[in-house]
C-alpha cells in the first residue's frame, strides 16, 4: 500500500514544476491551468511577482496543478493506494482518485477560491503554532475568539481568524512555551466558521460535476475525519463542509497507517506533509517528490520501499 499525500497552499516556489514540466503526460494539466491563469503555469511561477503565487485563487490552482501533473507524469503505481489531501490538496486527491478529471479539479479549485474570497472577512488569515500544550492553546483561542483550522497533531495546529487577533494569539503562544508561532501565507481564514457562507454554493458546484466513486484499489480519505469516502454524494458534502470546518490532518495520517501504508509520497510542492508524516508515523518511509532529481528516481524508490 502506497500513501499519496496531496499538498496544500503555502509552499509554492519558482521551480515547483521543474521535475514534471517536460513530461508529455502532464501537458493536459498545464493546458487546463493555463486557461484559468491566463499564462502557462510553468512560466508563471518563474516570472510572476512572488505575492501572486500566494494569492488565494492562484495558489489553489497552482498547488492542484502540481499534484495532478506529478501524478500524470509518474504513471500507474503498481500497488494499492490510500490518498489524502491537505486543505485544497483534497481537491487534487479527488483527481488522483479518479473521482474528477484533472480539468474539473482545476476549475473547481478556482470556484472554491472565489467562493472563499467572497465569504471571507477582510484582514483575516491563518497562523501555525507548534509545541504549545493543548490546554494553553484552548485558553488563548477562548481569549481571542479564534478557531482551530487544521489539527496536524496534538501540539501542532493551524488557527484562523482576523489578523489582529492572530497577532495577539501568536505573541501569547510564544510567551507560554510554543516553539513556533507564525503567520502563514494564506489570505483567508480557511476551515473556520467564518467561511460558512461558501459551503452550500461550493457543494452545488461539486455536485454539478457528477463525481465518480474512487477507482478500484484506491482508498480516498476525507479531510474532516480521515474516514474513507465510499459514496460520491457523501463525499460532495464533506468536501464542501471542509472549507468551514476543522481539517483533521492527524486523523488522515492515522488513516494512512490503518490502511497499512508501507511508504508515503507527497506530490508537492514542498515537503511540509512529509515532515509531519515523519513525525507522526516515524516507522513508515516518507518522501516528497521535491526530494528527487528525476521521475525515474521516484519510481525506483517506490518499488524498493513498497
Count of spatially separate domains: 2
Total beta strands: 9
Q: Fraction of residues in helices?
A: 40-55%
Shape: globular
| CATH H-level superfamily of the largest domain | Malonyl-Coenzyme A Acyl Carrier Protein, domain 2
Task: Give the oligomeric state.
Answer: single chain
Mean pLDDT: 97
The CATH architecture of the largest domain can be given as: 3-Layer(aba) Sandwich
Q: Helical region count?
A: 13
Estimate what percentage of residues fall within beta strands: 5-15%
Largest sheet: 5 strands, parallel
C-alpha end-to-end distance: 7 Å
What would CATH call the class of the largest domain? Alpha Beta
Residue runs with pLDDT of under 50 for 5 or more positions: none
H/E element sequence: EHHHHEHHEHEEHEHEHHEHEH
CA-atom Rg in angstroms: 18 Å
> Order of strands side by side in the largest beta sheet?
7-2-1-8-9
**What structural class results from the helix and strand content?**
alpha/beta
Descriptors:
five-stranded parallel beta sheet; four-stranded antiparallel beta sheet; Alpha-Beta Plaits; 13 helices; Malonyl-Coenzyme A Acyl Carrier Protein, domain 2; 2 domains
